[in-house]
Design a protein that fits this description.
single chain, 2 domains, 7-stranded mixed beta sheet, 12 helices, binds pyridoxal-5'-phosphate
């Protein structure tokens, strides 16, 4: 039902403007405000210019001037604010530079940028349905679609979270409760040496002692083997230790390896254990037919972490925890919200996870998926894997040890002792406009390229490989 008149003309006070440019402190509820529109257009112009100027800079800025961190006494005018913004942006990392290959931080999808702006302006709150009526429904609908598209079953759904670390934490809290171990300091989590460091944080927050995370040595390629897990389960039984969960990874952070999910799921099914798949990087492959084979078995997990902020390019933060049985979220995090009306069409967002107030992260994810379509997702993923294959192919003839990987990450070392080669090569690549990262694996210094940047062309890969080759020659003694 509509209220007869929702406008309250006499009651709306004029909104104070802070400067002669007419930029209002708050957007007026009474008609389009040209001062606001003008400022947003100028800010948008600034951003578009910054994005378009990336080719004039390297992916990583040098030292730059910083605007003041502290507020001035009287507040600054619109023009000065834009100048400050520009100064700050000049010192930013440029994710859309074709040589930005260091990390899992691709350029943002265009519609994702617009959705972030709209979400900020709407300022709805996913804590409760009444504070975000349409967005709460959208969030439920999209979480259910994502979880079911991964194959987690007809009841599956989940909740967004501010990053994969939080998604992993919530998964383990649910798993511990499902194993009736909440409040207990016993219980281990079994995973691989290469699993993400956020698991240590999660167990620490859960109050579990150091040593509760069993990191098993991987097979020769780096993946977690089901028989190693089975042996570990035997040791747990001997020591009388209950198991909270097995955590498999779909896309390790250094190599992009996918653990054998089918076998691990079968083992966990037999043993009645919770399988969490940390698919922050790779789970997105399960959404489309042509790439699903890369994460075969993911649909048999109990819970999955998926980060659209990584391979898909949705702007940060964008992560979700998806569960076969989403009731576990409510069981673990539902408290009742006594100061809210009941949710009409489901459960309040604030009862499904650790976060209370949440912005509309769902908006940029939804708009991005709408714009891409399933074919667009497939093309985007295929492009990243093609570039990774292309780089592997170009590096193969060089005197390098290129590590195996299943996704769009390529890590490599010089054959034989490093003797400073890795850091020298890294410097030469930066001078040539390519930024790779410098991880280490079991003490071995590596260079890592993440091929999630759609602006990296075959010509760029040729240049990159040529620079690596030169540095190999230069290091010859
Ligand atoms: C990035 C990553 C995470 C953590 O995600 P954040 O969003 O950085 O918190 C967890 N697991 C894996 C495998 C990752 O690559």
């Amino acid at each position: 039902m509509r209220m007869a008149d929702q406008r309250l003309p006499g009651l709306v006070a004029p909104v104070p403007a802070n400067d002669s440019g007419g930029l209002p402190l708050f957007p007026s509820p009474q008609g389009l405000d040209p001062g606001l529109q003008d400022f947003l257009e100028q800010a948008s112009q600034l951003l578009c210019q910054w994005l378009g100027d990336s080719h004039l800079h390297g992916p990583r800025p040098g030292l730059s001037l910083q605007p003041s961190a502290e507020p001035s006494q009287g507040g600054r005018e619109a023009a000065a604010l834009l100048t400050d913004l520009q100064q700050l942006m000049a010192g930013g990392f440029r994710p859309n530079h074709p040589g930005a290959l260091a990390h899992l931080d691709p350029p943002p999808l265009s519609v994702s940028i617009a959705a972030d702006l709209i979400a900020a302006g709407m300022n709805n709150n996913l804590l409760a349905e009444e504070l975000s009526p349409s967005l709460s429904r959208l969030e439920r609908g999209l979480c259910a679609w994502l979880a079911q598209a991964l194959g987690l079953g007809p009841q599956a759904s989940g909740v967004p979270a501010s990053g994969g670390s939080l998604s992993n934490l919530m998964a383990l809290v649910c798993a511990r409760r499902a194993a009736a171990l909440q409040g207990s300091l016993k219980g281990v989590v079994i995973t691989a040496a290469a699993a993400h460091i956020s698991l240590e944080k999660a167990l620490g927050v859960m109050g579990l002692p150091e040593g509760a995370l069993w990191r098993l040595p991987p097979d020769a390629q780096g993946r977690l083997q089901a028989n190693a897990v089975a042996a570990a389960l035997g040791r747990c039984r001997q020591q009388g230790l209950p198991v909270i969960a097995v955590v498999a990874t779909a896309g390790t952070t250094v190599q992009g390896l996918v653990d054998p999910l089918e076998e691990l799921a079968a083992l966990c099914g037999r043993e009645g254990l919770w399988l969490h798949v940390d698919g922050a990087i790779g789970a997105v492959c399960g959404l489309v037919e042509a790439q699903r084979w890369r994460v075969r078995g993911i649909g048999a997990a109990d819970s999955v972490t998926l980060n659209p902020q990584k391979l898909l390019g949705v702007s940060k933060p964008s992560s979700l925890l998806l569960l076969r049985n989403p009731q576990h979220l409510q069981d673990s995090f539902g408290t009742g919200l006594p100061y809210m009306e009941p949710a009409h069409a489901g459960v309040h967002g604030g009862e499904l996870g650790l976060q209370g107030t949440r912005g509309a992260e769902v908006l940029k994810l939804w708009l991005s998926l709408q714009h891409l379509g399933l074919e667009g997702i497939e093309t985007l993923l295929a492009g990243a894997f093609q570039r990774a294959d292309g780089l592997r192919h170009r590096l193969a003839p060089l005197p390098l040890a290129v590590l195996p990987g299943d996704l769009h990450l390529v890590s490599f070392a010089r054959q034989g002792p490093d003797q400073g080669w890795r850091d020298a090569c890294h410097r030469q690549l930066l001078q040539g406009g390519f930024w790779l990262s410098k991880p280490a694996l079991a003490g071995q210094p590596l260079l890592k390229a993440v091929l999630g940047n759609p602006f990296t062309t075959d010509q760029h890969l040729d240049q990159l490989a040529a620079l690596v080759q030169q540095s190999c020659l230069g290091a010859k003694r």
